[in-house]
Amino acid sequence: MTEKDTYKTIVNAAPEVLFKDRNSKFIGYAFPVISEEEVRQHLETLKKKHHSARHWCYAWQMGTENTAYRANDDGEPSNSAGMPIYGQIQSFDVTDVLIVVVRYFGGVKLGVGGLINAYRTAAQLALEASEIEERTIDVVYELNFDYKDMNKVMRVIKEKNLNITGQQMEMDCRITLAVRKRDAGTVENIFEQLYGVRVTRVDR
User: What CA–CA distance (Å, rounded) separates 155 from 159?
Assistant: First the structure.
């Protein structure tokens, strides 16, 4: 079995979506995120925007190989909001994503089943409104070498169509590369064979 080296995520924040049930309004949002600090900022912004709402329930997932996630019911009955939202993140198979559903209470209790359906549906609509793209899981390498070795390094980069993410040319040369995971071992080996070139794998 080949190891998975792609993942799906959303490109931009999705336009807000609305689901109504018995006068309660559930407004869904989807955001691309890569840190809990970003999650906190989005929640703060939405709480200011919807300051008279009753609940701001959410779920997020981050990471590609070792994923982390959180689901928050924000005062709704246990597992009636956060986990149904998280279930949609799993269903769409996306990561590096935050889904928030803001609830305005309409005066009629929906019961746990009604809440699960409403939060799940709002999360689903938010993801359906998002542009989802598949990306490669990359390994980052740093190459250190002298100017005299520049040509042979650049030849490999060109031949293998590698993605340069950073470079610094001072007393010596430093180039940072992002290499698709499935090709990483081969590429690392090629550079290790080049005399005078130091290859270091960078953990992000």
Answer: 6
Q: What is the DSSP letter of 196?
A: T
The token duo for 64 is 């590609």
Q: Which CATH architecture has domain 6-134?
A: 2-Layer Sandwich (3.30)
- Please give the order of strands across the beta sheet that includes 198-202: 163-169, 173-180, 138-145, 198-202
Parse the chain into domains and list their residue ranges.
6-134, 138-202
C-alpha torsion angle, residues 23, 29, 83, 34 (rounded to 10): -160
Cα–Cα distances in angstroms (integers) from residue 9 to residues 53, 55, 61, 63, 94, in the given order = 28, 26, 10, 10, 5
Does the predicted model carry a pTM greater than 0.85? Answer: no
Buried b (16+ CB within 10 A) or exposed e, 128-138: eebebeeebeb
- Return the half-sphere exposure (C-beta side, CA atoms, 13 A cut-off) of residue 159: 10
pLDDT tens for 56-91 read 999 999 998 789 999 999 999 999 999 999 999 999
Written as six digits, the tokens of 10 are: 């959303």
Asked if residues 191 and 176 have their Cβ atoms less than 8 Å apart, the reply is no
In this structure, CATH architecture of domain 138-202:
2-Layer Sandwich (3.30)
Per DSSP, which regions of 17-89 are E strands?
A: 17-21, 24-32, 55-62, 68-72
